[in-house]
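Comment on this:
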Amino acid sequence: MIPRERLASATIPGGGEMILYRRGQDHRILVDREELMSSRMSGSEEALATMTAARLGPRAAQRWLVGGYGMGFTLRAALAALAKDARVTVAELVPEILDWAKGPMAAMTGDSLDDPRVTIRLGDVADAIAEGQWDAVLLDVDNGPDGLVRADNDRLYSSAGLAVLKRALRPGGIAAIWSAGKDPAFTRRLAAAGFSVDEQAVRARANGKGPQHTIWFATRRG
């Protein structure tokens, strides 16, 4: 068996430790011993972007916010789906994640971070959300609608946080939230916040296999 190699670590502002591992060509990022993401599980992260793009349709000059970068699966899928006049802001809390993207995971990253449509914003995605006027906000900063990476992320999924998220979207805009599993209470909270909610089960792997993850597509009405 190929041994697992620890490549790097980073301290999460207000949270724990994030560790990058490699085994052969596969990469994994763990937070305090819990797997946050894996290069073998890209399907649902890509679906976060492709299914959002399909729901929005051919709007001109779309403005997307992606939080966070992770391993870049969502960003790369968004760039493939969006027109040349679109703009994508990536909010990443942990700067080392971008160093890893350009270093140990450069082959996977390709030229996506250099795409002229992309702006990298270091910091809390909540601050970027509050700036508003987004056609799409894609959130994959935890393993679900709770603050795994850091407790402060809970505010993103609270009733108050969802009210801010709704105001930040243009009419007909979509907030897409990724989760490792179901959360009926969060589904109810989205509906109570005034969103039209479409909850989808998506396979973890790009080949349609693996465990089922959940994506909520919450559309601002009117």
Residues 147-151 have pLDDT under 50 and may be disordered. The two ends are 55 Å apart (CA to CA).
